[in-house]
Write a structure and sequence with these properties.
The protein is built from seven helices and twelve strands. Helix 1 links the parallel strand 1 and strand 2. Helix 1 packs across helix 7 and helix 5 packs parallel to helix 6. It has two domains: 134 residues, Rossmann fold (3-Layer(aba) Sandwich), CATH 3.40.50; 106 residues, 2-Layer Sandwich (Dihydrodipicolinate Reductase, domain 2), CATH 3.30.360. It has a seven-stranded parallel sheet, sandwiched between helices. The protein has a five-stranded mixed sheet with strand order 8-9-7-10-11, covered by helices on one side.
């Protein structure tokens, strides 16, 4: 039986993860952790680790605490699955080194939806055949980081195909700063929308002379992420390695 702790257990994603773990025949939810506290909820990772046996921590907290949470887990030999986005490249590299050093598995997943992961993989393939591309990501207005981890990961995967996706673009002047979005890997512009009503959506737009090609994914309910979460937990227990992206284990 895999003993799982959930950080951010009282949040919307955290509650779904707790339900999914409780319903999994090979897992046991041994610790719910959330700064808000409450009955049966630990207010800190430290308190949970002192009191409970935990094989894997699944983290859906906040961008400003995830890095320290992950370091604490790895330094204490606890495998971790990270669903919180907002880590930068240097932090990801540091967690990779720490995971290897401590021999504690770590999986960082920008998006747990299999459909969203397939969108990213399809975009990576399409990038070989188009010289121009931009990304629009749309999330609920309580998401604290922008752009989304999914958009950043998509751009990074696409950048493996070529160095720029602005071929032939004219010199630009923004009359309103930021109107062209943020510039990511390989000059891919990412546009972030924050709006009530959305959960998570992303569209990758490719263009060439005479045609536009779009790849889009929409999440309608947070339950769509749970299969990916459980897959990640099972993988990190059995393989005990460092993984960045759910596509690596599909």
């Amino acid at each position: 039986m895999i003993k799982v702790g959930v950080c951010g257990a009282l949040g919307k994603m955290g509650q779904e993860v707790c339900r999914a773990v409780n319903n999994a025949e090979d897992m046991e939810l041994t610790a719910k952790i959330d700064i808000a506290g409450g009955e049966g909820v630990y207010k800190s990772l430290e308190d949970a680790v002192k009191s409970e046996k935990i094989d894997v921590i699944v983290d859906f907290t906040r961008p400003d605490v995830i890095f320290n949470n992950a370091k604490f887990c790895l330094n204490n030999g606890i495998k971790t699955v990270i669903g919180t986005t907002g880590l930068n490249d240097n932090q990801i590299d540091e967690l990779h080194k720490l995971s290897d050093e401590k021999k504690a598995g770590c999986m960082i997943v920008p998006n747990f939806s299999t459909g969203a992961v397939l969108m990213m993989m399809f975009a990576q393939q399409a990038a070989k055949y188009f010289d121009n591309a931009e990304i629009i990501e749309l999330h609920h207005n309580q998401k604290k980081d922008a752009p989304s981890g999914t958009a950043i990961k998509t751009a990074k995967m696409m950048s493996e195909a070529k160095n720029t996706f602005m071929k032939g673009n004219c010199a630009e002047t923004e009359t309103i700063t930021g109107s062209r979005g943020g510039t990511s890997y390989a000059d891919i512009h990412i546009h972030s929308v924050r709006m009530p009503g959305y959960i998570a959506s992303q569209e990758v737009i490719f263009g060439s002379s005479g045609q536009v090609f779009k790849i889009r994914h929409d999440s309608m309910d947070r339950t769509c992420y749970m299969d990916g979460v459980l897959r990640a937990v099972r993988h990190i227990v059995s393989k005990n390695d460092f993984v960045y992206g759910l596509e690596k284990i599909l």
